[in-house]
Amino acid sequence: MTARVARPAYRRVLLKLSGEALAGPGGTGVDPQVLHLVAREVKSVRDDGVDVAIVVGGGNIVRGVQFAERTGLNRATADYMGLLATVINALALQDAMEREGLETRVQTAVEMRQVAEPYIRRRAVRHLEKGRVVIFAGGTGSPYFTTDTAAALRAIEIEASAILMAKKGVDGVYDKDPRGSTDAVRFDTLDYMEMLNRGLKVMDATATSLCMDNDMPIVVFDITHPGNLRRAVRGEDIGTLVGGSAGGPGRDQRR
């Protein structure tokens, strides 16, 4: 008797990778091992026929708000530096994924045609339809907005079924930091308002509100364990599921 193969629960996903998730020892730079782990994870999902887009952060290189506070630099200038840092991460990720045989495109909200395409929604969707992995860099293109907000915005624009929030060493959303508290409790599910009211730092309030207004599910999981991305895409009980109702995009695009 042939074993039944689990089918993806989501047709199209947006993977949010923070700069910290890509960082090497000390929380800075880019760890080649993490790059190749992510590339292999994405390939396994693409092999299942799932469309994959990625929004990458830049906190492993420059985090705008903290850099401005530390140096006295103008906040907008520091944020633009952070946006440029996301492009560095996107190019590193693109190279790692192409080494795994994936076809990719990098699109930036801050135009730099020598290294990437400008962000055009219709072109991004067309790339996804052709089986390419699209990496969105440059955040929203504006200062004062986080890459979490960029992830929520791009997910809605490309009609993704869910946002997959990849964490490094943390397997979901907890009531307190599990790395410093032995009694931290993990949530299996959360709704958007509870996340906002509890002040849980899954994503910033602007991004959360965007997801809530558009009923965009968020799956928070640990990317460092091989196979976890595939499990998340298949809808397995992994990490924490935030939001997503019966009528939302996370449900009407399940198959």
TrEMBL record:
Gene3D superfamilies documented for this protein = Acetylglutamate kinase-like
Task: Please provide, alphabetically and separated by semicolons, the GO molecular function terms listed in this UniProt record.
Answer: ATP binding; UMP kinase activity
**Which residues of this UniProt protein bind ATP?**
K16, L17, S18, G19, G59, R63, Y174, D177
The protein's annotated pathway: Pyrimidine metabolism; CTP biosynthesis via de novo pathway; UDP from UMP (UMPK route): step 1/1
Describe how its activity is regulated. Allosterically activated by GTP. Inhibited by UTP.
UniProt main location, coarse? cytoplasm
* Region annotation Involved in allosteric activation by GTP: where it falls in the sequence: 24-29
Cellular component annotations (GO), alphabetically ordered: cytoplasm
**Which one Pfam family would you cite for this protein?**
AA_kinase
Annotated UMP binding lies at G58, D79, T140, G141, S142, P143, Y144, F145, T146, T147
Q: Where in the cell is it found?
A: Cytoplasm
Enzyme nomenclature, EC number: 2.7.4.22
Q: Which GO terms describe its biological process?
A: 'de novo' CTP biosynthetic process; UDP biosynthetic process
CDD domains, per database record: AAK_UMPK-PyrH-Ec
InterPro entries for this protein: AceGlu_kinase-like_sf, Asp/Glu/Uridylate_kinase, Uridylate_kinase, Uridylate_kinase_bac
Ranges for domain Aspartate/glutamate/uridylate kinase come to 12-222
Which enzyme class, named as a word?
A: transferase
Q: Reaction catalysed? A: UMP + ATP = UDP + ADP
Give UniProt keywords alphabetically: Allosteric enzyme, ATP-binding, Cytoplasm, Kinase, Nucleotide-binding, Pyrimidine biosynthesis, Transferase
Q: Which family does it belong to?
A: Belongs to the UMP kinase family.
- NCBIfam families this protein is in? pyrH_bact (TIGR02075)
Subunit relationships: Homohexamer.
What does the record give as the function of this protein? Answer: Catalyzes the reversible phosphorylation of UMP to UDP.
Q: This protein is called what?
A: Uridylate kinase
The organism named in the record is Candidatus Segetimicrobium genomatis
What's the gene?
Answer: pyrH
